[in-house]
Amino acid sequence: EHGITRPKGYNVSFHYNPDMEKHHFGMTHPMKPWRLTLTKSLVSAYGMNFAMDNYTARAATYEELTSYHASDYVDHLATVAPQPQPLDVENPNPDLKFNLGGSDCPLFEGLYNYCSLSGGASLDAARKLCSNQSDIAIAWGGGLHHAKKAEASGFCYINDIVLGILQLLRIHARVLYIDIDVHHGDGVEEAFFSTDRVMTVSFHKYDPLNFFPGTGALEDNGPKSEHNPGAHHAINVPLNDGINDEQYKWLFETIIQRVVDKFRPGAIALQCGADSLAGDRLGKFNLLVQGHSSCVEFCKKLGLPLILFGGGGYTPKNVARAWAYETAIAIGHQDDIPSQIPIHTPWRDRFKIDSLLPTIQQILGEPRQNRNTQKKLTEIVQHVTEQLRFVGA
Ligand code: VJV
Ligand code: CA
Ligand code: ZN
Questions:
Q1: Among 12, 77, 93, 185, which is most exposed with the fewest C-beta within 10 angstroms?
Q2: Ligand 1: which atom is nearest the Cα of residue 27?
Q3: In terms of Cα–Cα distance, which of 291, 263, 262, 261 is closest to 359?
Q4: pTM attached to this predicted model
Q5: What is the distance between the alpha carbons of residues 175 and 387, in angstroms, rounded to a whole number?
C-alpha cells in the first residue's frame, strides 16, 4: 500500500514520452536525456502516478513548431543528416548553419524526433491548463530556454517554453514566466521582449565573460524605449557561485510576490532547471532540493494555473530527486512520502545516498564558498522594486 491518493478538487497532469530517453547528445556531452528515465523511475516508485493524470505526450507537428520557429530552420532540423559521433577532432565544427553541429548542439541521430517530443509534451501541458482540466501540468522533458526563433543554442533546439506560453496567451491576458535554471533564460526573454503580456523573471549565475550565455544583467529589463510595451517586463536576478537555500528562498519569494501583485498574471510558467542544485556538473550553487523546490511550493500557493517545465540539470541523481520531490509538491504529498528512496526503485544504486533529501555535507562534503553578500541581494530587490513601479495599472 503506497498511500498516495489523489488530491481532492485539484488536478495534476504529467506529460511525458519515454521515447525522449532513447536520444543521445554524445558519450561525454553533459545533457543526458537518461535523467528523465531516472526521474520517472523515482516518481513511479513512490506511487505518485496514482495521484495524477498521466499522458504519453505526442510529437509536436510541423505547424506547431513553426508557430514560433522560422520554417527554414525547422525544415533544416527535419532534414539535416546526423553527424558521426563522436565528433571528428580534426574538424569539430563542419557546419554551423543555425548554430547546429558544434559541441553544444550536436546533430545526433533522431534529433528532430527528440525536439518534437519535447515540444509536444509542453504543448499538451499548456493545453490542459487552458481547458481547465489541470491545475498544475508537468513537462519535465521541456524547459529548453536557450533556443531562438531560427537558431539552436546551449543544448536547446526548439523552445518548447515559448510554444507553451503562446498557447497560454490564447486564454490568459498575462502570463508570468519564471526561470530557476542556473543559466539565463535568454531565449524566452527574447521571444517576448516586445510585449507587456509576458513578464520574464530569470534567476541565474551571471559572469558575462566566463559563464554561458553571458546575458541577463540586473539592468536589462526589456527594450530601453518607453514607447515599447515590453519595457520593464524582463526581470533579471544575477547571482554568484555558492548561493544557499535561505538566500535563494528569500530572494525568490520577495521578488515573485511583488511581481505577482503588480503584474497580476493569469497563469505561471515555471522552468525548474536542476543545474542550480549543489553538486551539479555545470552549476556551482549550494542549493538543496529543499531550497529549489520551495520555489515550486511558493508558486503553487499563489493558486494560479501552473505549468512546470524541466530544463538543465547535469548530475542525473540530483535532477531525479528534485523533479520527483517537485512532483510530490504538485500533488500535495511532499510531507508524507518516505524520506528513504523505495527499495524497489529501478536504478536505485545510481542514487548513491539512500535519502531523497541529502544534506549539503552528503552531496559536496564541504559547501562551496558563498560569493553572494546580503548587501548585493538587497540591492537586487531594490532595483526590481523600482522596475515594477512602471508595471501594471
Ligand atoms: O559555454 C558554452 C559555449 C562554449 C563553446 C562550446 N564549448 C564546448 C564550451 C564553451 C561557449 N556553452 C555552454 C552551454 C550551456 C547550456 C546550458 C543549457 C541549460 O541548462 O541552460 C538548459 C538546458 C556550456 N557549458 C558547458 C558546456 N557548454 C559543455 C559542453 C560540452 C561538453 C562540456 C561542457 C559539449 C560536449 C562535450 N563536453 C563532450
Ligand atoms: Ca535562470
Ligand atoms: Zn542551465
A1: 93
A2: 39
A3: 291
A4: 0.97
A5: 18
- Domains (range + CATH), the chain: 12-388 (3.40.800.20)
Cell of 286: 549550494
Ligand 2 centroid to 280 CA: how many Å?
Answer: 14
Q: Please, how many CA atoms are within 13 Å of residue 100, restricted to the half-sphere of its CB?
A: 21
Pocket of ligand 1 (CB under 6 A): 26, 28-30, 103-104, 144-146, 154-156, 181, 183, 212, 273, 275, 282, 311-312
Write the pLDDT tens digit of every residue in 9-60: 899 999 999 999 999 999 999 999 999 999 999 999 999 999 999 999 999 9
Q: How many CA atoms lie within 13 A of 134 on its CB side?
A: 28
306-309, strands of its sheet edge to edge: 53-56, 12-16, 136-139, 306-309, 267-271, 175-179, 198-205, 234-239
> How many whole angstroms separate alpha carbon 209 and alpha carbon 387?
26
372 three-state secondary structure:
coil
How far apart (Å, rounded) are the C-alpha atoms in residues 202 and 185? 6
ipTM passes above 0.85: yes
* pLDDT tier at 94, thresholds 50, 70, 90: low
Cα–Cα distance measured from residue 225 to residue 319, given in angstroms and rounded to the nearest whole number: 40
Residue list, CB under 5 A from ion ligand 2: 179, 181, 185, 202, 204
Q: What is the pLDDT of residue 95?
A: 59
Q: For CA atoms 360, 366, 370, 371, give the dihedral sign.
A: negative
Question: 152 is written with which cell numbers?
Answer: 539552436
Beta bridge partners of 308: 138, 270
How far apart, in Å, are the Cα atoms of 64 and each of 61, 98, 114, 195, 197?
5, 19, 15, 21, 21
What phi and psi values does residue 198 have, to the nearest 5 degrees? -125, 125
Contact between residue 258 and residue 388 where contact means Cβ atoms under 8 Å apart: yes
